[in-house]
Each structure stands twice: as C-alpha cells, then as structure tokens.
Amino acid sequence: MTETSQYAATFSLVDADGDGRISASELAELIRRLGDECTEERAAEVVAAMDGDHDDLISLAEFADYMSRNQV
C-alpha cells in the first residue's frame, strides 16, 4: 500500500465537501477553476481510472496509489 500522507494535502484540495472521497463533480469543478474545460463525463472517466473499488468515488488510498504509479 502506498504511503498516503504525501498526497493528503492535494487530495484535500480536490475533496471540496470534505467527505473523504473525490467525486466526478468535485474533480470537474476544480479543473474548471484552474482554467481548463472539463465535462462531467470526462471527470467521470478520470475517476473511473483511479477507482479501485468501483464506487464512483476516489478515496485517499486510491488517489495515492494512482499518483505513485503515474509519477512523471
């Protein structure tokens, strides 16, 4: 399991409602606030790529696992 603490601050920025999960709508909203276009459908595709338990939400553990596997 990936160490989650190094990703917790970034995760918290995206988790706008603070429920411990990132939804497609939260992700789309962040991307739009950063100045990019993002549809709910595209955000849902990104969530699906990270969503290990298939609940349509990203947990901190899923986020950290994805980020550690996809470091540039």
Automatic annotation (TrEMBL):
Q: Where is the EF-hand domain?
A: 2-37
CDD domains attached here? EFh
Fetch the Gene3D superfamilies from UniProt.
EF-hand
The record's listing under SUPFAM superfamilies reads: EF-hand
- UniProt cross-references to SMART domains, sorted A to Z: EFh (SM00054)
GO molecular function (one):
calcium ion binding
InterPro entries registered for this protein in UniProt: EF-hand-dom_pair, EF_Hand_1_Ca_BS, EF_hand_dom
Organism domain of life: Bacteria
The protein in question is named Ca2+-binding EF-hand superfamily protein
Q: Which organism is it from?
A: Nocardiopsis aegyptia
